[in-house]
């Protein structure tokens, strides 16, 4: 199959590329960074360098594709996050329609349908194609963004690495950290990017009738249980996950000078996780859980932590 992937050499797209190339597929990987051409080629894929905001580039790249995997990276600089997300989604939909691609896998999020700015899935409804929406839970790799605070204070929050006008946002006395409005004893499903890549690879080679939704997770537990697993791996078994209120979260995002609509969307997204609605939807779908447990990831985390 000729398969086009977006996401450059990210935590999902890189292992996804490796899986599909090993299966013998003709893989093209889109990246906006020309410096990544050689690394993409080294994986056995064809690099396509361009922007997903460039409709003509997408039309050319998607031509004759049997299947396409699409994702939209979150931007911390767009003044209107909703318009940015919809613009890219519309570009995808128009380019896929012109290309006549019959199999499409869209990376979404497990609370995306609960947040107005991120509800983009309807834009793919009019395509004459088999479309699967992937809704992964909270990424294990988010813990890397908490590393500085863990080192300094022994706390975990839902931290986002923020960059605005070339400066790191300083919100807790540590570089680029921000607590979130879910955590503590909230029950959350966590997921490994490797398990998401496995699910995406499987879906790209299937052809279900109509549009489908697939939730992806690796392990369910409370945020504090997750904190203890991460903490035990680095010699801090007392580690706690701090929970902020919605107001505190919004205030912190505004202090970081994030665009107002983005700040509101992030608060809304995490509030859906805190409320349990995202977990409820996840369980209703009765998905098969992935193979990578948090304890497995914790060993990788500990190795990076010790080197930092």
UniProtKB/TrEMBL annotation:
Pfam families membership: NAD_binding_10
SUPFAM superfamilies: NAD(P)-binding Rossmann-fold domains
InterPro entries: Ergot_Alk_Oxidoreductase (IPR051604), NAD(P)-bd_dom (IPR016040), NAD(P)-bd_dom_sf (IPR036291)
All residue ranges annotated as the NAD(P)-binding domain in the record: 7-119
Name of the featured protein: Uncharacterized conserved protein YbjT, contains NAD(P)-binding and DUF2867 domains
């Amino acid at each position: 199959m000729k398969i086009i992937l977006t996401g450059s050499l990210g935590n999902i797209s890189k292992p996804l590329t490796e899986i599909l190339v090993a299966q013998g597929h003709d893989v093209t990987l889109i990246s906006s960074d020309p410096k990544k051409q050689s690394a993409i080629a080294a994986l056995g894929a064809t690099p396509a360098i361009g922007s997903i905001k460039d409709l003509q580039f997408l039309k050319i790249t998607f031509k004759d594709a049997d299947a396409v995997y699409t994702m939209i990276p979150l931007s911390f600089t767009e003044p209107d996050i909703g318009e940015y997300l919809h613009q890219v989604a519309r570009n995808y939909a128009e380019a896929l329609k012109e290309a006549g691609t019959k199999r499409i896998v869209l990376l979404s999020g497990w609370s995306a349908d609960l947040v107005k700015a991120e509800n983009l899935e309807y834009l793919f409804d009019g395509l004459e194609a088999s479309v699967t929406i992937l809704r992964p839970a909270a990424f294990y790799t988010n813990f890397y963004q908490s590393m500085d605070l863990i080192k300094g204070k022994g706390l975990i929050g839902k931290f986002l690495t923020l960059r605005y006008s070339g400066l790191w946002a300083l919100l807790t006395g540590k570089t680029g950290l921000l607590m979130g409005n879910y955590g503590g004893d909230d029950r959350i499903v966590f997921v490994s990017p490797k398990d998401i890549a496995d699910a995406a690879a499987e879906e790209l080679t299937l052809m279900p009738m109509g549009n489908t939704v697939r939730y992806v997770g690796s392990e369910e537990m409370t945020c504090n249980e997750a904190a203890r697993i991460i903490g035990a791996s680095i010699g801090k078994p007392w580690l706690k996950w701090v929970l902020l209120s919605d107001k505190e979260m919004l205030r912190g995002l505004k202090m970081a000078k994030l665009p107002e609509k983005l700040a509101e969307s992030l608060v809304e997204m995490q509030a859906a996780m805190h409320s349990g609605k995202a977990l409820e939807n996840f369980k209703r779908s009765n998905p098969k859980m992935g193979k990578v447990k948090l304890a497995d990831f914790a060993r990788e985390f500990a190795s990076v932590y010790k080197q930092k």
